[in-house]
Amino acid sequence: MSDDLETLRQETLAALAAAADRREWDAIRVGTLGKSGRLTALLKELGRMTPDARKLRGAAVNRLRDELSRAIEERGAAIEAEILNARLVAERVDVTLPTPPDRTGMIHPISRTMEEMTAIFGAMGFRVAEGPDIETDWHNFSALNTPDHHPARTDQDTFYLPAEGSGGNRARVLRTQTSGVQIRTMLAETPPIRIIAPGRTYRADHDATHSPMFHQCEGLVIDRGITLAHLKGCLTDFLRAFFGKPDLPVRFRASYFPFTEPSMEVDIGWSRKSGEIGGGGDWLEVLGSGMVHPRVLANCGLDPREWQGFAFGMGIERLTMLRHGIPDLRSFYESDVRWLRHYGTSPLSPALLHEGL
Amino acid sequence: MKFTLSWLHDHLDTTAPLEEICKTLNTIGLEVEGVEEPGAALAAFRTARIVEAVQHPNADRLRVCRVDAGPGFEAVQVVCGAPNARTGLAVIFAPPGTWVPGLDITIKAGAIRGETSGGMLCSLRELGLGEEHDGIAELPADTIPGQSYADFAGLNDAVIEIAVTPNRGDALAVRGIARDLAAAGIGHLRPWLAETVEGTFDSPIGWANLFPEACPWVLGRTIRGLRNGPSPDWLQNRLRAVGLRPISALVDITNFFAYDLGRPLHVFDADRVTGDLLTICRGAGEAFQALDGREIVVSPEDCVIADTAGVQSLAGIMGGDATGVTAETTSVFVECALFDPVRIALSGRRLGLHSDARHRFERGVDQALPVAALEAASRMIIELCGGEASEVVSAGAAPAWQREARLRFARIAGLGGVDVPADEAVAALEGLGFAVRRRDADEVLVDVPSWRNDIAMPMVLDQAPGLDPARARQAEDGARTVDAECDLIEEILRLRGLDSIPPVSLPALSAVPLPALTPRQVRAAAARRVLASRGLMETVGYSFVAQAAAARFGDVPEGLRLLNPIAADLDQMRPTPMVNLLSAIERNAARGYPDLGLFEVGPGFSADGQTQIATALYSGHTPRFPGRTAQAVSLWDAKADAFAVLAALGAPVEGVQVTADAPGHYHPGRSGVIRQGPRVVLGYFGQMHPALLAGRGLDRPVVGFELFLDAIAEPKRRRRAAPDLSPFQPVRRDFAFVVTRDVAADAVLRAARGAERTLISGISLFDVYEGDKVPEGHKSLGVEIVLQPAERSLTDAEIEAVSDKVVVAVSRACGAVLRG
């Protein structure tokens, strides 16, 4: 290599090594390979040479061009990497900082249980029916074979509102059960009927285990050929799904309600000692049920020779307390954010059977 | 209803153990609420006899006794320190392994001073029975060794408490319970017959019945020359065991029959009755003092028993103090009557009087029993108190209670879902006292026993008003056909136990179930999820609140005020869940949690009815965080969440208007009404009125919203057209409009949007400026317009033309000028 080429090479490589930033590097690049760069100038000189000299000189210049181009490129990449590294160092943050706190919202356990009940009964072909909290005396009692003097009526401490209608003759009550919804459904629809009626109910009772307002979920099935065996099957299926225990012991005990016949109370197995559902040798009453009384059917215009079915009712708070081990009924209505956070559920995991309850 | 096992054995011949009896009671619908076994802790103690007692060779104060404690313990040597341990004495023996309650030790076999001792002879105090401890207990000389001491002393009498359902008046009697158990296969019902007590004189007191609707039949007789005193131990023990206080023989006897036969009786002190006639009649507003000491004012709806001095008894519920028996009573008049259950129930409820008599009469007593019950009571009175009985006097006549009921055997499976052999079904009914009148292969006709007032009773329907008459009649015919039959099927099934019915899952109505909720019903759940996912806690509040609190949030009509609230501050149906939320915010703040957002999706009540309101309330600040200061909640939080709910529920958010006329519980200058069209109000939002918060310890802003879910129109389920996805870039242009302060931003945006319908695809407000760079009383609104070309890129001239249109429209509508 001739001296001038070697000089150019040495100088350029030294300058590249000294280049501290993108600007200095670019000046070298332009000064070498640019339009009026030193190497470009050497290339231009080749045209004026004899073919032999050009051949010799050309090969050397081209080699030098290749070498310097590569060196410039490599140095450019190295400078970029240095710049990036410097930036990354500068951008370092304390990753142990907590994220900005989100306000977490929760669904109340009563709503959650209602959704679960809706999901399970929905899978059995039930749909949800609703009715007013303020009912007529007839819808809440009389239609349900519970006339005014009935002893069952004194057991349900009823809240009364001023009567309405012409001359104030329509007694109004806060519904003591959601059965009024069943009555409305039977009057409005032709069987087959499969409904549940979850909602608020009211009884004039207030202590550690009673709240003047609570929630019930009642159900009604009316069709041809529905028997007590279906009642047992349906409620057993529900309780096992709700408590997530396929082998949950379920017991049916004869009882009495004015609106069903035969009537029964339903117990599940549990342990009195540990409170564990399904274990132990004890029984815990969880709901009431029965075959719809023929008088109730007739009051709603259904011929009991053609239609029969069953009805049931369960306390939503009670089942929620059992399922989640919640000790105090009153806490459901106190709106204490600490309690709500503890027992609430995420709105992003709604009750879906295919995801598991 | 409580009873003891021995009392049950008076009527039931059975060897079934207590546990089996309780299990059967549960099965047949007489739910066991509790069992007490006072003797359970004494099971191991036995009666015994000291065959020989000799001085202990190594201890002055001890004796070595050879004890016969019956089978297995015929010759036990026991070392005993009691001074009264002597040959021939009948004693209580505790074998090794027995826990002694009075000492809290367990007996071990061993040796005392070199003499073996295989048990212990006990005092009553050591058994936990009283304080007597002068040596070991001395039993009667003829006591047979080897009996359970608890049995021997009558301590093994378990007390059983059952819940009796309102239909089973007959089970408010030990005899009724025994009958049910016998019918369920637990032993046999013992026969019961009342021996007649011959009257020896005419009763000086007679009956007059002026109110036969309330009292169809009444009997009575005088018993004179008796002596009232404490009743015997067996009777006192029984009454105490079932929770009654023994008073005197005469009173205890009436209580005994109330529990034994479910037959309430009343005894008047005959010498304190004025005149010779007891009259059954309506009350007439007079007052009398009842046996419980209360002053009762009786009305014409109440059935009373009066003598010439006035009312002496509230018939069938409670006797009067003036004619009650005392320790000095020597002559009584015994009343045994049938009363109309409905009148008893209504009178008792009206007057707030509870008694064992009312409890039984309103549930129905044995219609055929009065004669026999009066004889049995007379006999017991004479046995316990002496005296002689008069002839029986009566008024009215035995009512026609006889009824029949038909059962088609196939219907047992038809209703009950299980086949029961006809013979078994009939046997069950006969066990309960039904008498077969006629039977063939398909059905049986039975007479209903006099004590079952719940079976085949006259049918009372209360059909829906407005029911189609033909439909109503057919339904009634149907009920008439099956009503009594259902009663019988219930009896047969409960005696077998419902557990014997194999469960059958409901048949599917469709392979894949239809939705359980209608789109309208989904809304409440959707609103809950939206609000919870935006950081609010769901609450559930009572539907009733204090009237004064409710009045601050809306109308509180008297029609929505409870007549019988459980507490003074739970008397008014709430106009909105916000009443509860404000209290909840306040309570949480008082507990040290002032920064929170709560919501409830629940009912609000007004004169127009019940509506579902999604309500939220926020207070306090956002949490502090590096680089972010705490922000006080503002009405924009509430508005944003309200609109998020509306959007999620499919409300046409683009089309709603906001006006500044929210109700009085909101800050008048910082609240809005969300409207759809001129009439429909979807909700309110804003900062709460400061007056609402004053004095509540809430010194920070509180904001909230209410959305009326029922007002939101159901979204139309139209198939949507495919979206128009233009290949051309949208163009954005910013404008700064200066308007007077009172111009609503919404008006500016609407005007701008209306300027050009085809090209403007979006419009948004990005800035509001008030200050010295705009004229006094003005504000500058920064508005971004998005133009979306459809067919080709817009030219500058076209963009300019649209911009001009926007400026013209906004200045025309709002008096705006472009900011220079």
TrEMBL record, chain A:
Alphabetized Pfam families for the sequence: Phe_tRNA-synt_N (PF02912), tRNA-synt_2d (PF01409)
Reaction(s) catalysed (UniProt annotation): tRNA(Phe) + L-phenylalanine + ATP = L-phenylalanyl-tRNA(Phe) + AMP + diphosphate + H(+)
GO molecular function: ATP binding; magnesium ion binding; phenylalanine-tRNA ligase activity; tRNA binding
Protein name (record): Phenylalanine--tRNA ligase alpha subunit
KW Aminoacyl-tRNA synthetase (keyword) present: yes
Subunit note: Tetramer of two alpha and two beta subunits.
Record-annotated Aminoacyl-transfer RNA synthetases class-II family profile domain positions: 110-350
Record PROSITE patterns: AA_TRNA_LIGASE_II
UniProt-listed GO biological process terms: phenylalanyl-tRNA aminoacylation
Cofactor: binding comment: Binds 2 magnesium ions per tetramer.
Annotated binding of Mg(2+), by residue: 261
Top-rank taxon: Bacteria
Subcellular location: Cytoplasm
Automatic annotation (TrEMBL), chain B:
Cited Pfam families: B3_4, B5, FDX-ACB, tRNA_bind, tRNA_synthFbeta
Domain of life per record: Bacteria
Swiss-Prot/TrEMBL cofactor(s): Mg(2+)
Record carries keyword Cell cycle: no
Keywords: Aminoacyl-tRNA synthetase, ATP-binding, Cytoplasm, Ligase, Magnesium, Metal-binding, Nucleotide-binding, Protein biosynthesis, RNA-binding, tRNA-binding
GO annotation, cellular component aspect: phenylalanine-tRNA ligase complex
Any one of the GO BP annotations: phenylalanyl-tRNA aminoacylation
Gene3D superfamilies reported for this sequence: 3.30.56.10, Bira Bifunctional Protein, Domain 2, Ferrodoxin-fold anticodon-binding domain, Nucleic acid-binding proteins, Phenylalanyl-trna Synthetase, Chain B, domain 3
Protein biosynthesis among keywords: yes
Family matches, as PROSITE patterns: B5, FDX_ACB, TRBD
Catalytic activity, EC: 6.1.1.20
Record text on cofactor binding: Binds 2 magnesium ions per tetramer.
SUPFAM superfamilies recorded: Anticodon-binding domain of PheRS (SSF54991), Class II aaRS and biotin synthetases (SSF55681), Nucleic acid-binding proteins (SSF50249), PheT/TilS domain (SSF56037), Putative DNA-binding domain (SSF46955)
Start and end residues of each B5 domain: 400-503
GO molecular function, a single term: ATP binding
Chemical reaction(s) catalysed: tRNA(Phe) + L-phenylalanine + ATP = L-phenylalanyl-tRNA(Phe) + AMP + diphosphate + H(+)
Assembly, per entry: Tetramer of two alpha and two beta subunits.
Entry protein name: Phenylalanine--tRNA ligase beta subunit
Organism (species): Gluconacetobacter tumulisoli
Lineage of producing organism: Bacteria, Pseudomonadati, Pseudomonadota, Alphaproteobacteria, Acetobacterales
